[in-house]
Write a structure and sequence with these properties.
The protein has 228 residues and is of the alpha+beta class. 31% of the residues lie in helices and 21% in strands. An 8-stranded mixed sheet has the order 5-8-3-2-1-4-7-6. Helix 2 packs across helix 5. The longest helix is centred in the first third of the chain and has 20 residues.
C-alpha cells in the first residue's frame, strides 16, 4: 500500500513539474497543439451531430478549442490544452493563443480518455477574464450547452447570447443546459516559444504587432471562413 501511494505521489509531482516548466517542450510540440485544435474544430463542423450553427458563429466574439485528456497514475488527474482566438474590431480573427485547461469533467465519463470541446464566447468582456490568469467556466461567466446545427430551428435567442456556449461530443449534454466545466488559464511561457516574442496574451490577441507564422495561418483562415 505504501509503495502504491509513493508511486501516485511521484506521478503527481512529475505532472506538476512538467506544467511548471513549459520550456522543456519544443516549439514543434506547441505547433502540434495548434494543429490539433484546428483538426478538432474541423471535425466538429464536418459532422451535423456536432456542427455549430451559422447563427451562433455569426455572433461569436471569441472561440476556444480545448483538447483534454486523462493524465497521472491511478489518480486520473485531468489535464489539457487549447487555443483562444478573438474577433478584433476590424472583423478579422486574432492569432490562436495557447492556453492551459483542466477539470472539464462534465463530459469525461468512465472509460473515456479524452474530451474535445469548442466554446463560443458571445461578448467582448469574457475573453479578457483570462488576463487575470485563470477563468472558471460557468462560474466567472454563465455557460450553457450550445445548440447543434441539427437543432438550429429550435435556437432560443436568449440561449445563443449566453456569454459562453459549450460544444462537446459528449452524449446527453442538452442545448441550454447550464454547464460548469472547469478552468482555462493563460500560459504566456508557451506563447513566448511559439511566437518567438515576449508579447503576452493581451498583445497577441488584440494587437497586430506579431506576424502570424505559417503554421497557425490555416486555423486563422478556417475560423475566418466559418465566422466572418
Amino acid at each position: 500500500m505504501k509503495k502504491l501511494l509513493l508511486l501516485s505521489l511521484f506521478a503527481l509531482s512529475g505532472l506538476v513539474i512538467a506544467r511548471a516548466a513549459p520550456s522543456a517542450a519544443s516549439r514543434p510540440e506547441y505547433v502540434s497543439r495548434v494543429e490539433t485544435c484546428e483538426a478538432i474544430l474541423r471535425e466538429f463542423m464536418a459532422n451535423p451531430a456536432t456542427a455549430i450553427p451559422a447563427s451562433v458563429l455569426q455572433g461569436a466574439r471569441a472561440i476556444v478549442i480545448v483538447n483534454q485528456f486523462k493524465a497521472g497514475f491511478l489518480l486520473g488527474v485531468k489535464d489539457g490544452y487549447g487555443v483562444i482566438m478573438v474577433k478584433k474590431a476590424d472583423g478579422h480573427w486574432s492569432l490562436p493563443v495557447l492556453i492551459s485547461a483542466g477539470e472539464l469533467s462534465f463530459g469525461l465519463q468512465v472509460g473515456a480518455n479524452s474530451l474535445e470541446t469548442v466554446m463560443v464566447i458571445t461578448d467582448d468582456q469574457t475573453p479578457r477574464l483570462l488576463f487575470n490568469q485563470r477563468f472558471n467556466v460557468g462560474v466567472d461567466a454563465k455557460a450553457v450547452a450550445g445548440p447543434k446545427a441539427a437543432e438550429a430551428e429550435k435556437n432560443n435567442r436568449e440561449m445563443i447570447t449566453a456569454p459562453v456556449l459549450v460544444y462537446s461530443k459528449t452524449k446527453g449534454l442538452y442545448a441550454g443546459a447550464t454547464v460548469k466545466a472547469g478552468w482555462l488559464e493563460r500560459n504566456d511561457q508557451v506563447n513566448y516559444i511559439l511566437y518567438n516574442t515576449q508579447y503576452t496574451m493581451p498583445e497577441l490577441l488584440y494587437s497586430n504587432w506579431v506576424t502570424a507564422p505559417t503554421e497557425v495561418v490555416p486555423l486563422m483562415q478556417y475560423v475566418q471562413s466559418i465566422a466572418p
